[in-house]
Design goal:
The protein is of the alpha/beta class. It folds into 2 domains: 3-90, Alpha-Beta Plaits (2-Layer Sandwich), CATH 3.30.70; 98-292, 3-Layer(aba) Sandwich (Rossmann fold), CATH 3.40.50.150. Helices cover 27% and strands 31% of the residues. The protein contains 9 helices and 15 strands. Strands 8, 9, 10, 11, 12, 13, 14 and 15 form an 8-stranded mixed β-sheet that branches. Strands 2-3-1-4 form a 4-stranded antiparallel β-sheet, with helices on one face. A 3-stranded mixed β-sheet has the order 5-6-7. A hairpin with a 3-residue loop joins β5 (106-108) and β6. The longest helix is centred in the last third of the chain and has 13 residues, at 191-203. The termini are far apart.
Length: 293
């Protein structure tokens, strides 16, 4: 199906109002894009964070009379003579194929590969995790996931138990199992994450060694040799007592989802319980690891 979009240069004060109006007049989707490429991280709960200069991009069916859309926007006061906007035809493509073509097998560390199911495995002798992008976070493409995968690959996991706190797609727990861990436990607050982790573990033949719990249902006495948590700095600090208790004495902890600027405050939340390693940094994101005292 063909589409047409209108891109309106707006501000953080006006973007939400324009978005609501575009949906009222028939837009099938509206997205916000920072017109100056300035990322904002970690909005507060229930908060929509926008940028100082925000492009509002609305998608319409290609048959839509876009001049009428422009007239409606002007009549409603959302477009003035000074407002920059652009109407663009969107090429009709096989978007599913386009999307699939963007995902390739990726290597992490010396042994581990994450491979989409529709591509051939590059090395049959490697540790191959078959994982397709889906409903839950975690495919290996984000620097924080990559940092955690490389850390797991560097460990001797043979016979060890691993907890993946905030398991998302299950990528870290499944990778740990394929790297030799005896068993793994995935914990998340999102039922979709539990479902995705279960499906992905079945696809990789490790479901019999993976337990999955919603956070509210997790046993109180859980502990593991290795605990990895790839979430965000705020929750990592808030949940430091809970996460720390999951690690056995002399066990290993890996934390990510942390901006480089947030590393110090996260380290401070864990330094009493763990002997911390130097912080690993990639593309302004970082990983914190350590051993339980």
């Amino acid at each position: 199906m063909a589409w047409v979009q209108i891109r309106i240069n707006s501000t953080n004060q006006q973007a939400e109002t324009i978005s609501d109006y575009l949906e009222e007049i028939g837009s099938v989707s509206v997205t916000f894009m920072d017109s100056q490429d300035t990322p904002i991280f970690e909005p507060l709960p229930g908060e929509t964070r926008l940028w100082g200069n925000t492009d509002v991009i609305a998608l319409f069916d290609a048959e839509t009379d876009m001049q009428q859309i422009v007239s409606l926007l002007k009549s409603a006061g959302h477009l003035s003579e000074e407002t920059a906007y652009k109407i663009e035809q969107i090429e009709d493509k096989d978007w599913e194929r386009e999307w699939m073509d963007n995902f390739h097998p990726m290597q992490f560390g010396k042994r581990l590969w994450i491979c989409p199911s529709w591509r051939e495995v590059p090395d049959e002798n490697a540790v191959n995790v078959m994982l397709d992008p889906g409903l839950a976070f975690g495919t290996g493409t984000h620097p924080t996931t990559a940092l955690c995968l490389e850390w797991l690959d560097s460990l001797d996991l043979n016979g060890k138990t691993v907890i993946d706190f905030g398991c998302g797609s299950g990528i870290l727990a499944i990778s740990a199992l394929k790297l030799g861990a005896k068993s793994a436990i995935g914990i998340d607050i999102d039922p979709q994450a539990i479902l995705a982790s279960r499906n992905n573990s079945e696809q990789n033949g490790v479901s019999n060694r993976l337990q999955l719990f919603l956070a509210k249902d997790a046993p109180q006495d859980l502990q593991a040799d290795v605990v990895v948590a790839n979430i965000l700095a705020g929750p990592l600090k808030e949940l430091a007592p809970t996460i720390s208790q999951l690690v056995k004495k002399q066990g290993k902890l890996g934390l990510s989802g942390i901006l480089e600027s947030q590393a110090q405050s996260v380290c401070e939340a864990y330094q009493e319980q763990f002997s911390l390693d130097p912080v690993a940094i990639r593309e302004e994101w970082c990983r914190i690891t350590g051993v339980a005292k």
